[in-house]
Write a structure and sequence with these properties.
Shape of chain A: globular
Largest interface: A-B, 19 and 26 residues
Distance between the termini of chain B: 16 Å
Radius of gyration of chain B: 20 Å
Number of strands of chain A: 10
Largest sheet of chain A: 7 strands, antiparallel
Helix content of chain B: 10-25%
Strand content of chain B: 25-35%
Strand content of chain A: 15-25%
Radius of gyration of chain A: 20 Å
Oligomer: heterodimer
Number of helices of chain B: 7
Number of helices of chain A: 13
Helix content of chain A: 25-40%
Order of helices and strands of chain B: EEEEEHEEEHEHEHEHEEEHEHEE
Strand order of the largest sheet of chain A: 1-8-9-10-6-7-2
Shape of chain B: globular
Chain lengths: 346, 321
């Protein structure tokens, strides 16, 4: 039984939707009625069947449409994909990881066959059947990182580890929440987190870096992050701010349910074996308010979280302008009853 | 063990004496599959079931990272050490089933380097075996200077010379050959990274000279072969688990904590990775900090200890574990 891939868009007419099964598997990020930063990192292990954690690299009904959107972004702006010269080996590591995980989780859609260095990769949803020599870049149409991340949902930052720090030295970043690989490339962990408010004072980044530099091969970790996006746009980059920024002024009490989307990033962290780098896949999940509130627990809880969010965080996440409208709309779905523990719907 | 690394079930596939002090051990996976890929400079922690006692020693992987059908390590026999190397030499035979950790790399190549200048002393050659194999496969630029006591104790010197020719330079103590360090360090092209592995004295010498000659610290990489030092026995109270334990003369604090059934995190077991860092709740006595992780300020404060290599002498010690 395969996935039925949706035909949809993340721009112009915005036909992106979640099927009812996908609404229930949405990675709702709030385990309680309020939100504050924490180093909420846990082992990235396989989770319940039917959840986004059923496989360590998730492929879902939006796969084909997302890959088409990525190709469009890259055609307009090739700098969304960059790899410094010393990161090619890490690119091969990532290619192996993603091919292995996708073939393992979705054998009906992906097949990887190896004969020594001679590898054959079949990607049925995208109609790809390529044979290449592992480690020989000339046998692929793109560099190894670009080749595989044109075929994998989510953004990918590959970090070099040296001097007790992590350096963002390669990446494929087309579905980001208002940051830019072209700006961050070559920066270290503290430099690229510099704009985040409050967390520095809490020492969160020092602890997070310590954790990440100790990530072990065979023991990936994960965390959830979130923000909100108006209209189901995957590409909310600084480069395209003029396209999506003004959307924030278009939220009205009538269109909140359709326009406002919760954007959840499932970030995972993997030690790469050959390069000793760390790859940091950032998988983006979008859900519009109308879809989210079909789960009454999520509606009640999201109301309380957004209502009580500290001002600095609301500003940082770009919610300020439409927060009152959103809170007012959500308040009608909050009967004041308690929410059950945990992330999942009731 | 949940807090260490992921484990691999292996079988000893070969044991090969290399010279009068060093023996090489080969491991294959018990299920016949390939072992995980690794990067040059990585080590595994080998678990040794020695009677009632489990010893955990880290050893550098010395095979080519391009071939993961087997892992190979080389163990130098230490007759006055804590017993791990003697166990390997005396007890481990082909066919023995053992457990090793996934590879961990705390001595990674900096792949930005235009050239890799490697300095090895004695058994410190082992991580360079894998690093040179990795670099040779990628056409990398490296040069290896290897000092050993005598030609017969030059572990793998012949193999390296045969493989890499003029890129390998040997120095024998008994012939009073010595690395001309200042000249070597002064004559390197810009973009060279320096790697040193060997006895502490050699590492300190190389680091000091590199610093004096203006090498930026981020281009100087080193790996200590720091086995826990023996010392006077001492008692420790573990506040969280509520246990009172005794650390024996030949035992590390980390080993004593593990023997008491507490499962602390660890990676290197050599005082460099920071994973087993533990808070000191109270103490009356003096610490013998043998680690390279904590800052001098941490050492002076007496509030933190690295139980894998550090010891204590005094009346009482309470740790948060």
């Amino acid at each position: 039984m395969g996935i039925t891939f949706r035909k949809e868009t993340f721009r112009d007419d915005f036909t992106f939707r979640n099927s009812p099964e996908h609404i229930r598997r949405f990675p709702f990020p709030f385990h309680e009625d309020s939100y504050m930063y924490a180093v909420n990192i846990e082992p990235h292990v396989v989770g319940p069947k039917g959840s986004v954690l059923e496989n360590l690299i998730d492929v879902d009904e939006h796969y084909v449409a997302e890959m088409q959107d990525r190709a469009m972004v890259l055609a307009e702006d090739p700098l969304r994909c960059q790899s410094l010269p010393h990161m090619t080996l890490a690119g091969w590591d990532l290619l192996e990881l993603l091919m292995e995980q996708q073939a393992l989780g979705y054998p009906e859609h992906f097949t990887l066959t190896r004969d020594g260095d001679r590898w054959r990769w079949i990607n049925r949803p995208l109609g790809i059947d390529d044979t290449f020599t592992f480690g020989d870049t000339s046998t692929l149409p793109y560099g190894p990182m670009e080749y595989i991340t044109r075929q994998s949902q989510g953004d990918f930052c590959i970090l070099d580890q040296r001097d007790g720090n992590l350096w963002m030295d390669a990446g494929m970043v087309t579905t980001q929440a208002d940051w830019s690989l072209d700006f961050d490339i070559g920066m270290n962990f503290f430099e690229w987190h510099a704009p985040v408010p409050l967390a520095h004072e809490k020492g969160i980044f020092v602890r997070a870096l310590k954790f990440l530099t100790n990530i072990q091969q065979g023991k990936p970790a994960r965390r959830l992050n979130w923000t909100m996006t108006i209209n189901p746009r995957l590409d909310t980059s600084p480069e395209n701010y003029h396209k999506w920024g003004p959307d924030r002024t278009t939220v009205t009490p009538e269109n909140v349910g359709d326009k406002v989307h919760l954007r959840v990033e499932l970030q995972s962290f993997w030690r790469l074996p050959r390069s000793n780098g760390i790859v940091f896949p950032i998988r983006c999940y979008l859900i519009k308010m109308d879809e989210l509130v079909t789960q009454p627990k999520w509606a009640r809880r999201l109301h309380r979280v957004i209502r009580d969010l500290p001002e600095e965080l609301a500003n940082y996440k770009g919610l300020t302008r439409y927060r009152p409208t959103l809170v007012e709309w959500l308040s009608k779905l909050d009967d004041g009853s308690p929410t059950s523990a945990g992330f999942g719907p009731d | 063990m949940s807090t260490g690394t992921t484990k691999l079930d292996v079988v000893v596939s070969d044991v090969v004496p290399v010279n009068e002090l060093v023996t090489r051990f080969h491991f294959r996976r018990r299920d016949g599959e390939l072992l995980p890929t690794f990067s040059g400079g990585a080590h595994v922690v080998v678990e040794m079931r020695d009677g009632e006692r489990t010893r955990l020693n880290p050893y550098s992987l010395m095979g080519s990272p391009l071939d993961t059908r087997e892992y190979t390590i080389s163990v130098r026999r230490d007759d006055v050490g804590r017993g791990g190397s003697l166990f390997m030499h005396n007890q481990v035979r082909p066919g023995l089933e053992m457990v090793v950790s996934y590879p961990v790399n705390l001595f990674s190549l900096d792949l930005r380097a235009k050239k890799h200048l490697m300095l090895a002393g004695g058994i410190g050659i082992t991580p360079f075996m894998a690093q040179t194999a990795q670099l040779a496969g990628e056409g990398g630029n490296f040069e290896l200077h290897y000092t050993c006591r005598t030609a017969s104790l030059g572990t793998y010197a012949d193999v390296l010379s045969e493989r890499y020719g003029r890129r390998v330079r040997l120095y024998h103590d008994d012939r009073e050959e010595r690395i001309e360090l200042d000249r070597l360090l002064s004559s390197q092209p810009l973009g060279t990274h320096l790697y040193v592995c060997g006895p502490a004295g050699m590492i300190n010498w190389v680091r000091d000279r590199a610093a004096a000659l203006g090498w930026p610290p981020e281009t100087v990489h080193f790996e200590h072969f720091a086995a826990p030092q023996p010392g006077l026995p001492f008692d420790v109270t573990l506040a969280v688990s509520g246990k009172i334990i005794r650390v024996g003369e030949q035992q590390s604090l980390l080993e004593a904590i593990e023997a008491a059934g507490v499962d602390p995190p660890y990676l290197c077991r050599g005082g460099v990775c920071g994973q087993c860092e533990t808070n000191v709740i109270s103490c009356d006595g003096k610490f013998i900090h043998n680690d390279h992780w904590l800052s001098e300020e941490d050492h002076r404060s007496g509030r933190k200890i690295m139980p894998c290599v550090s010891r204590f002498e005094g009346k009482s010690l309470v740790l948060e574990r």
